[in-house]
Structure prediction request, 844 residues.
Amino acid sequence: MALAFTENRKPKTENPKKNLRIFLTGVGGQGTLLASRLLGEAALAAGYNPMVSETHGMAQRGGIVVSTVVLGDLQSPLISPGEADIVLGFEALEAFRALDRCQAQTLVIANTATMVPYPVAIGQARYPAVAQMFHCLAEQVGALLAFDAGALAHKSGSPLAVNMVLLGALAATDSLPIPAQDLLAVIRTRTKEKFLASNLQAFDLGAAAARDPRNWEW
Amino acid sequence: MSELLTGAAGERRLFLGNEAIVRGALEAGVALVTTYPGTPASEIGDRCYEISRQTDLRFEFSTNEKVALEVAAGAAACGWRVLCAMKHVGLNVAADALMTLAYVGVKGGMVIVSADDPSLFSSQNEQDNRYYAKLAGLPMLEPATPEEAKAMTRAAFALSEDLKVPVLLRTTTRVNHTRGPVTLGDLAARPGPGRFDKDPFRQVMVPAVARQAHVRLLAAQDQARALAETSAFNEISGRGAWGIVTSGVAGAYVADALKELGLADKVRLLKLGFTHPLPEALLGDFLAPLTKVLVVEELEPYLEEGLKAIAQDRGLTVTIRGKGPDLFSRLYEYHPGLVREVVARFFQVASEAASPLAPEKILGQPLPDRPPNLCAGCPHRAMYYAVKIALKDLGVEGVFPTDIGCYTLGLLPPLSMADFLICMGSSISTAAGISRATGQKVVAFIGDSTFFHSGLPALANAVHQKHDFLLVILDNGTTAMTGHQPHPGVSLMPPGYPGEHVPIQRAVKALGVEQLWVVNPFKYKESLAATKEALTASGIRVLISQAPCHLYAQRLSGKKRTARFQVTKGCGECRDCLDNFGCPAMYLESGEKGQLQIDPELCSGCAFCVQWCENIRPVGAGKGKE
Prediction:
């Protein structure tokens, strides 16, 4: 599934058991926790010792929700600034804010759709221009794959399936040591029956988005 | 069936730390679990409630942590294995019981989970509850991972029974809310009814009895120390003339740092899991051959102080450091990079110091914050609005002691309805003090669950002492903040919930409150009129704002309101809605003279704003539906 046009840009996983730190960030209600849990379950099924850390409680009331998935020969569940290998940004601003977790080789997969924070909604702060944020991001990191995952989720029939879109895109970049099939198997057993068809479609739409070279041009 | 009831021994599952604790307790044959919900411990109660609906496990959401601990203590006295879970500040509430329960002791194994919250993700302080083990003289285990959380919970029951005292299982948010692989053991059967064997001269803590009980507690501590000396939860690894002593999740950061810095052959590592009483011989022997030792522990220098005392006893001159300006902070949780840097600095080895990217600097403009907010359709916001407008109309400034729950978010502008907060229940008693000292117009806010938790004694006091303030009880029918757990006044019941309903109104009246108003905050005219009456009266007044948590009511019924509202062209620039109400569904269109709009995706259809703004009108039923 490796793609020629991104071959020279994206990080490769030479050693399948190497350490991998995945940082997920979004807004409460976007399904970051489910995404990180699914990654963890798939990694466990593939024989890894995943550590997944989550945000619960007060932070969830419309605030930023981050979670981490750490694989390999590591015991720490957290990811320090500058140490993420992969960032999944569920919302444009939050993807950019996570730049502090990135280094020069980081692969960032981001939703370009925005969720306006309240201070912006009432005119007390300005939401940065999305294209500008992603141009800046692309200059700093190893590779940036960004597209409107919200629109694809809508297309799948479930606006809440942004997490599945991003997981599909991540699987298609071939940067996980877990085969896409394993991730799909976990989605089949761990997500609600009612949403399964739309989740699987969202996953495929995300994978297709990762194969579209335009989404890598920032 | 709960996932925690399935799976064969040896199987590996990905469990949240809190789930691992529950599984460990089930494998140990726990018969009763009690709790008061609080982040980061809440999932322990949630999972146990579910399991109690499916098995003969007894479980209760108690009214507060002290009650939870005492209920558990009663059952433990009858031979049952019991677990009592709470957040760190909950143990303050239960501390009175804890200190003397240590004297009384237990018959069945008792595990008390204290979930600390370094970094205050969801708490009012970041106290280090390891000192409670020292203060109460109880054994303490500190897991670093979900796997250890399960193993230690299981072991803690046996330890508690052997020593006949409760055991403290001290976790931190990063353990409670980390998912990691857990190896399952066999589930144990729960015992039938226990029996209370009378032994009053051991179990009734009058001075003469307690004097003897204290002797027994000290003996149990000596026994516990002997067990800690050989406990498999205290692990030594590596070799070299330098040493690191650590506990909890900090141990994971240390393990990774030693690998990354190539120090595995130079540093001897002692990871402690059995951390009270400290194994003095083990620690002394560990320190003796070393030249310098770094102590890596989050929050207070609990281990560091213990190690220094042991070194002094042994006459050792080894350098022991932990907290300090160039070393570790007593503030906030640690992370792998931070621990790696301090370890490298302390042992003077090279470390690739990453200089993290600064998003705002790179973009050349500040990034807007994303503060948490009360939900669209939240009844608290509607009540806050009525109080705000009533005070404005009356031309009076209000002082707002508040309490702990979702409604604490009323602190943020534009609501700005929170002025003073200490802890659960403090709204009512601090209101009494403020009004007595100033004569200012004081309006205290407390939620329904918090009212039952610790508001009742404070309200009885206010009646008895003839205090002069208005108490608004924000009754949304559930404990919303921690995930919608029930409480005595619950009106939104989780499916199958067997609890008896204790109406708040009846409790308030029974305490002698004579000036009482009950309003539906979504009926604006009525709630505003009642609020004005309540504000202008004197003496102790209570106004109960009764409307269910919208989020939970919707989840329970499976039905969504379909009405939506929109802003008409007449809307000018008054901005009353943004300045005083602040519903997250409202926004200004971008541009110089952006028009106010309501996002149909976010609007909950509560129909509150439409009652006080003539420029907001219904869109028409069915439209804007998801």
